[in-house]
Amino acid sequence: MRFIFKTDYNQDIRLFQHGGQMFWYGLLGVLLLAAPYLVSGYVLSQLQFICIYSIVGLGLMLLVGYTGQISLGHAAFLAVGAYTEALLQAAGMPFIVSLTSAALLSAAVGIIVGLPALRLKGIYLAIATFAFNVIVEEIITRWESLTGGNSGKLLKAIEMFGFRLSSPESFYYLCLGLTVLAVLALINVLRSPTGRAFVAIRDSEVSASCMGINLAYYKTMSFALSAALTGVGGALYAHKVGFISPEQFTLVQSIELVTIVIIGGVGSLHGAILGAAFIIMLPQGISIAKDWLPESVSPAGLQSVVFGLILIAFIIFEPYGLYGRWLKIRTYFDVFPFYRRGTFRRQRVYLRSERLR
Known about the structure:
The protein is globular, with a radius of gyration of 21 Å. The chain is built from 16 helices and four strands. The longest helix has 27 residues, at 215-241. The protein is mainly alpha-helical.
């Protein structure tokens, strides 16, 4: 078992805590860079989707997992990013400008949503963000002169610095690079006083307020940062599918994004990426499993049923998600034969009235 003794703050903020981490992450980086030469075009396409959904999952994880604010309207931020990218590309804007604009406009919309949500929490905040998703979906459907309505918008290949990123390999490297940047940005945000304020608000708003944390400011900032990352994911998503329409940004899409956070592991950046990979690969697994299912089982709606069952199973049996399961397996081998089943047992959750006594 490895023990790391930290004697100064610089050790605590290192990107890699020991040489083993550096080796495995380096190996993963080499494999990801070599993926276009190792896998088929279909698998490369799935990797592109995983990168895009990872960026969106990271944004939602910041809001849900680290600030404790639930959102059922993130598909609306995805739509804002996607349509901003489509409109600015049609206007002839460079990709750097349109991508930045998608992030900034999504962040501005996030602030607008975050401000009235300051007085809401729990199920009421979820309902408010759900209503926001419905409003945005209705706007992009009805505002045909701008969004094309149900006819949708077509996008061309990305052109950047004089190069046309029309090949799957070049677009994959763009998605991978932006995913790595998003992870590094969030790691640094979470190490900063801003990130610690987010976690304090998640753990106890009363305690955070008593420590002098401005709840309104940090909650709004969390919404803005989360929406900005989702906007970036929306811009990449628009280029990946090549055509966007209102049916792609419904409440079902929002629930699917929340599922990424729950299945991956709430409060973990690793979980956001694992959850995104799981969500992308699960439909392929279901399509393969259909061949072994009895004929009496109808394939129609099977995917939604399987998604629902898996979500319920994770909430009941593995609330820490995929990353939590990995930590348990790793800890088991680290401390064998001294591992005890109650090692990861959740502590008692006190009621708000009990905390105030």
